[in-house]
Amino acid sequence: MSTTTSLPPVGSERPRARSGATASRHARRLARPTARVVLPILAVLLPTVSLLVDGGWPQALRLDLAPALDSFADWVVDNRDSHPVFLYFLLHLSNAATDSVAWVHDLLTSAGWPGVLAVATALAWYAGGAGRGGSGPALVSLGSLAGCGFLGLWEQATETLALMLVSVAAASVLGLLLGLAGGLSDTAQRVLRPMLDTMQVLPSFAYLLPLVLIFGIGTPSALITTVIYAAPPMVRMTALGLRGADPSVLEASRSLGSSPWQRLWTARLPMARPQLFLGLNQTIMMALSMVVIASVVGAGGLGESVYQALKTRDFGQGCTAGLAIVLIAVWLDRTTAAAGARTGPRVGRRDTCIALAMAAVGVLAGTRLASGWPEGLTVDISAPLNTAVDRLVGSVYQDVPVLGGTSAWAGNFTSWVLNPLDSGLQALPWWALLALVGTVAWLVGTWRGALTAVLALACTGVLGVWGKSLYTLSQVLVAVALTLLLGFAIGTLAARIRTVERMLRPVLDGMQTLPQFIYLIPVVQLFNAGRAAAITAAAVYALPAVVRITTQGLKQVSPATMEVSRSLGATTWQQIRDVQWPLARPALLVAANQGVVLVLAVVVIGGLVGGGALGFDVVKGLTAGELGTGLIAGAGIVCLGLALDKLTQPSAGSPSAPARH
Predict the structure, then answer these.
(1) pLDDT tens-digit profile of 181-205?
(2) Which of 279, 280, 270, 267 is closest to 240 using CA atoms?
(3) HSE-CB of 106 using CA atoms within 13 angstroms
(4) Range in 156-170, 281-295, 315-329, 608-622 the model is least confident about
(5) What's the DSSP call for residue 377?
(6) What are phi and psi of 11, to 5 degrees?
(7) How many CB atoms within 10 Å of residue 542?
(8) CA-based torsion, 530, 533, 537, 543: positive or negative
C-alpha cells in the first residue's frame, strides 16, 4: 500500500568511485588522532566511572515545569469563552472543523450505501482513465467499500470516511501551498527542511496534548492533529517535483515569453504530476494511521472500535475494525495510484457523462431506497478470530515442552535483556552518556548533528524526565535491534529471490496499513502486558518499512557490478557482504532511520499495555487531565526522537551521508 521513491542505480563506475571516496573519508575520520584517542578513553572510562559515580541527572539542573504548565492549562480552560484569541480565531477554527466533518458525514449518510459505493466506483473508474484502464481500480474500490458493509461496520466507516476526506483535503492543500513555496524559493526550502525533519520524528501522540489543551476533546483536536501529521509528505514531494523539473523545458517556455505563473501552471506542475500524486498517496496513508490515535480524543468511527477492543483485549473486534481501515486504505490507494500513473489522453466527454450518470443513479437509489447497510448482508468474523487466537495462545502461552511458552519467554527476555540494559543506562553518569551520544553522532554525521543530539538528550534531564527517558530508550534500542536484524535479513532474501519478494508484497501492504493499536492486542495475549509486549508490537510494526527499503536498495545495485563479483568467484555470502551491502549503504541508513522513528512511535503507545515511562505519562495526561505531566512527557519524547534521529541519519555532506548521484 505504501509507495516508496525509487533509489538511483548504484554500483556503476561513477557511483562506485563516490562510494569509495565516502568510505575513505569515513575511514580517515575514524583514523583522526582525536578519534583514536577519544574512543579508547570512552570505552575504558565510561564503565569504570559508572561504578563509582551516581548516574542520575543533578537536581540543580532540573526545571519543574509541571505546576506552571498546569496553571497555564487552567488559564486556557477558564478563558476559552472570553479571550479574544479564542473568540475571534480558535473558536471559528474549531467550529469550521466540527461543521465540515459533520457536513461530510451527513452527505455520506443521506446518499446511502448505494450512493457511496456508486460515487466511489465512478471516481476510481474515471481516475483510471475510464474504459478498460479504469475497470481494475473501479472493481477494487467497489469491493473494498462493500467489504466494510459486509463486516457490519458501515456506520463507523462513514464516520471515519468523513474525518478522512476533510483531513486529507486540508492536508493536501496546506502541503501543496508549502511545497510550492519550498519548490520555488531556496529561502523557504531552508526554513521548511528543519521543520519537516523535526515533524518526521515526532510520535503522533506528541501532537495531541497541546491541541487537546486548546480545543478540548472532540472532532477539532482529532482533525487538526491529523492534518498536521499528514501534511509533511505532500510538502516534501511537491517541492521535490518542482525542483526536479527539466531545465530545458523551462528554458523553452521562458523563451516563448511565458510569465512565471504560466511556467508554473503549464510546465512545472505537469512535470511534477507523479510526485504530486505520490505525495497525496502518502498523505492519505499517514492520515489513516492517525485514525485510531485520534479516537483517544473523541474522533469515533473505526478507530474507536479498535481502541475499545484494546481495552477489552477483544482481538476479533479489533481485527475486524482494522480490516475495515485497510479496505478504506486500499480504495484510496488504488484510486490515487491510478490517477498518478495515467499517461494517456484526457478522459472524453462521453466517459465523463457515464461516470456522472453512474454516480447519480447510485445516489438516487440511496436516497430513495436505503441509507444504512442491510443487517442481512453482514458477516461476523470476530468470533472465529477470537476462537483461533484463544487456541493459539492456549497452545503456546505456557507449559510448552522444552521451549517453555511465550509467557516464560517474556519473563526471561525482561530479566536477562531489558532489566540489565535499563540498569546499565541508569547507572551511567549523565555527562558520560552525553559524551557517548555526542561522539557517536559526530562520527555518523557532523558536529552540528552531534550538538543537536547532545542538547536534545540533555533537555530530557532539564525537564525532569531523565530516568523515564532512559527507561524508554532501553526499549527502543532493543526493538530497533530486533527490527533491523529481521528487516535486513528478510530484505536481503527478497532482493535476491523474486518469488520471495512477490509473496511478501501483499503481506507488507497489509501490515503497513494496519493501525498501530492492532499489533498490541495479540502480543498482549501472547506475552501479557509489559515491556516485552510493547517491544514486540513495535518491532512488528516497523519491520515492513525496513524490509521494503532494504529490498529496494539492494535491487538497485548495478547488475554489471554483481556480474563482475560472480566472475571473480565470489560466493553468495561474499556478494552480499562485500558488494551489495556496502553499495546499498545509503538505503540501509534510511532503513535504520525509519526503523527508529516507527519503533519510537509504537513504544510510546506501548505505555497503554505496560510499557510505562514517557508513553504512560502522555496517555495519563490525556485521560486523567494532568496536562502538565503529559506535556512534559511529550516534550521528552520529542527530545528523545531528535537525539535518535541524529544518531541514525547522517547530515548532508558528512562522511557518512549518502552520496548524491
Answers:
(1) 888 888 888 888 878 877 766 667 7
(2) 279
(3) 6
(4) 608-622
(5) G
(6) 105, -10
(7) 29
(8) positive
Separation of alpha carbons 376 and 371, rounded Å:
14
DSSP state of 133: G
Instruction: Please identify which residue in the block is written with the cell numbers 521513491.
Output: 5
Q: 557: which strand partners?
A: 10
Contact predicate 57/430, CB 8 Å: yes
Q: Hey, what amino acid is at 92?
A: H
Does the pLDDT of residue 14 top 60, yes or no? no
Q: Are 409 and 545 in contact (CB under 8 A)?
A: no
Residue 562 in domain? no
| Per-residue cell: 166 | 476533510
Instruction: With beta carbons less than 8 A apart as the criterion, state whether 53 and 429 touch.
Output: yes
DSSP state of 657: S
Beta bridge partners of 10: 557
| Count of structural domains, the chain | 1
**Distance of alpha carbon 368 from alpha carbon 360, whole angstroms:** 12
Residue 545 lies in a domain: no
| Helix, strand, coil tally for the chain in percent (to 5) | 80, 0, 20
Cell numbers for 237, please give them: 514531494
Residue written as grid cell 511537491: 238
Res. 22: pLDDT tops 60: no
Q: Is 68 exposed, middle or buried (0-12, 13-18, 19+ CB in 10 A)?
A: exposed
Pick the range with the lowest mean pLDDT from 8-22, 43-57, 362-376, 454-468.
8-22
Answer yes or no: are the C-beta atoms of 168 and 283 closer than 8 Å. yes
Tally of CB atoms within 10 A around 48: 10
CB 405 within 8 A of CB 396: yes
Pair 121, 138: CB distance under 8 Å: yes
3-state secondary structure of 557: strand
The yes-or-no verdict on residue 486 having pLDDT over 90 is yes
Written as nine digits, the cell of 502 is 512477490
CB of 80 closer than 8 Å to CB of 647: no
Work out the mean pLDDT of the chain and round it to a whole number. Answer: 78
Q: Which of 56, 39, 42 is nearest to 430 (CA)?
A: 56
Phi and psi at residue 557, to the nearest 5°: -65, 135
Choose among 216, 120, 127: nearest CA to 165: 120
Q: Give me 345's grid cell.
A: 489522453
Residue 147 domain-assigned (yes or no):
no
> Domain range spanning residue 221?
153-368
The CATH number for 317's domain is: 1.10.3720.10
- Contacts of 29-35 with C-beta under 8 Å, sequence gap 24+, read 29/443, 29/655, 30/443, 35/443
Classify residue 20: in a domain, yes or no: no
In whole angstroms, give the CA distance from residue 223 to residue 166.
8
CB-based contact 540:605 (threshold 8 Å): no
Cell numbers placing 278: 505520490
CB atoms within 10 A of CB 402: 4
Q: Position of cell 529471490?
A: 497
How close are the terminal C-alpha atoms of the chain, in Å? 28
Residue 504 has what pLDDT?
Answer: 86
Is pLDDT larger for residue 288 or for residue 39?
288
* The C-alpha cell that represents 509 in the structure block: 501492504
Read off the pTM: 0.75
Q: What's the DSSP call for residue 264? A: I
